[in-house]
């Protein structure tokens, strides 16, 4: 069985609105969040497919999303998997994630 | 009568979600938007009172908010007045502004 572990992430109570908004306020990061929400537990590699962003930039994007509390990253053997912290975000900022991820939302 | 004129601002149809999120994703800008929403047609000077931000930085913040389509700035004689584009934002990104400006929202 692969060793699965969580990469450190902020506690729900420490999430701040401006940090979350800033994390979501980038086209690549918002697209990653949309994809992660659409296909939970995907690998980070699969989620970034076709985005044409250099690997170091992509790592920065994942880090910013994780540190803001928008996504959880899990290390699963050689893979990293991303999951949107929808429940934590809804608890803390009701309605925000739904408004941001509305289907058909202009970007 | 003072000459009142609008400073250029983007058309509603050209507002993009990530630009709006980025504009709101800063503590000073979010505070300016909260205050502008609470006291419509205030002067920009009055809205920035007590924020302890250098004037050039403040000008940048207002510009970013205006260019993102979050606020309208009107030049009223020597004063500039700010108004949140609540209707345009609601039309374009339903629920977003309400979620961001919820009273008691942790910041």
Automatic annotation (TrEMBL), chains A, B:
InterPro entries: ArsR-like_HTH, HTH_ArsR_DNA-bd_dom, HTH_MetalResp_TranReg, WH-like_DNA-bd_sf, WH_DNA-bd_sf. Keywords: DNA-binding, Transcription, Transcription regulation. It comes from the Bacteria. The keyword Lyase does not apply. One of its GO terms (molecular function) is DNA binding. CDD domains: HTH_ARSR. Residues 9-104 form the HTH arsR-type domain. Gene3D superfamilies: Winged helix-like DNA-binding domain superfamily/Winged helix DNA-binding domain. SUPFAM superfamilies: Winged helix' DNA-binding domain (SSF46785). PANTHER family: TRANSCRIPTIONAL REGULATOR, ARSR FAMILY (PTHR33154), TRANSCRIPTIONAL REGULATORY PROTEIN (PTHR33154:SF12). This is ArsR family transcriptional regulator.
């Amino acid at each position: 069985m692969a060793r699965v572990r969580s990469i450190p992430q902020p506690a729900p109570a420490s999430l701040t609105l401006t940090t979350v908004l800033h994390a979501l306020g980038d086209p690549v990061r918002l697209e990653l969040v949309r994809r992660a929400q659409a296909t939970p537990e995907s690998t980070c590699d699969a989620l970034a497919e076709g985005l044409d962003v250099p690997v170091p930039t992509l790592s920065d994007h994942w880090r910013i999303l994780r540190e803001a509390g928008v996504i959880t990253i899990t290390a699963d053997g050689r893979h990293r998997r991303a999951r949107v912290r929808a429940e934590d975000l809804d608890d803390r900022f009701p309605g925000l994630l739904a408004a941001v991820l509305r289907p058909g939302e202009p970007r």
